[in-house]
Amino acid sequence: MSEQLNLFQYPKHIQEPNSAIIHQGKPRFNSAIRNQVEFVQATLDDLIPEDHQVRNILNYVEQMDLSPIYNKIKSTEGNPGRPPIDPRILFALWIYAIIEGIGSARVIDRYCFEHIAFRWLCGGVSVNYHTISDFRKNNSKEFDELISETIARLMSRDLVSLKRVSQDGMRVRASAGSSSFRRKQTLKELKAIAIEQVDLLRKEIDEDPTACLNRQMAAKKRAVSERKERVEQALGELKKETIEKGMAKKKQRKPFTQAEKDKMRVSTTDPEAKKMKMGNGGFNPAYNMQLAVDTESRFIVGNIVVNKGNDFNQMPPMINQVEDRYAKIADEWLVDQGYLVHDHISNTQKRGYKVFVTPSKVGKKNAYEPHDGEDNELAEWRVRMGTDEAKEIYKDRASNSEWANAGMRNRGMKQLLVRGINNVKSVLSLHTLTHNILRAVKLEYVW
Description:
It contains 15 helices and eight strands. It has helices at 53-63, 67-70, 87-99, 105-114, 116-122, 129-138, 140-156, 184-207, 215-251, 258-263, 315-326, 342-350, 376-385, 388-410, 421-443, and strands spanning 164-173, 181-183, 265-267, 274-277, 283-294, 300-306, 332-334, 354-356. It folds into three domains: 45-75 and 83-138, no CATH class; 140-145 and 158-177 and 274-443, Nucleotidyltransferase, domain 5 (2-Layer Sandwich); 181-267, no CATH class. Helix 1 (53-63) packs across helix 3 (87-99).
């Protein structure tokens, strides 16, 4: 009989387990060949799968009314002038970049050559980082109006109700370091140095007018001028902050000493940024971004950027903004205890809102019972917040506001790359529009 084959027997050229393996030849594998010429017949559209996310993004961008941005284009048919890039391309590039966690115009510029999805959005149109950055900076007002216009459309179709709105804030680090903060005397010295540098540079250009055509000289001139402007802005911001703090001290009937004034500091990198307590317990230059979320549809219906480190006085401005945007009063308004100001609650409830925020306990008094001297609105609020129904409704605050904040963090809203409150507002509006587009895609809503 022939020898029976054992399926678990090792070949003769391999030793037993736990011993060295003996190879009869060299190992084989597939190596990369990067100089192989290939001919591929395909359009850009063929290279993007039909279910790719970027197709949904462009589809929703094309549904939006961008006429306010188009109306700013000066190049018209029959007249001279180089046609600019289609605003829909630039807008879609920013939305898709934010989804991918990209906040830099230079990175988007690079990806328009390296990444097939960005190339598909460009559709053969050449872009550069200056144009991409300027589009974001110059259309802050238009982005804000676009938020109102898209939500208003959804409201007209009963897709957004504004029955219950949750408000919360998040602090985002500014494009400035803690070491950039300077006192008044130092700012004055820096201003004098900056003026001297501008004068020296002007003399150089006067002596050699052709020097201003040099790119390096132009960049140097721009840098010196911007430094001088930032120092002047910092002095103005310091004066404004001193007046505000003096008024606050006066209301508290406390003296505002010269020593306290001398200690006040402002950043020379981003004068409008203020030091705030961050989530890690430290203090960094930052901006406070306020969001209002419709809890039923989870769309963001309002946003505000402030350079105050707390939420103490931010409920009335947000309520006014949402009311002005949509000409409607929300039935219920949810905030956390950072917004707890009795006068604000009372005035808001007089306007027809029901405010939901847990009252603070003062001494031995029951926080859920009317207190002596308080008006009917505050008494009604205290009693209502003690009910099981109100406590159940209040759970919607964290599940919506915290969720919206986390989504923005995951899309790169951790460190700002722009300076100034107006530019920061533009960034927040783009993130808000991105959030709402993603929400519309998920729910298959149409504008």
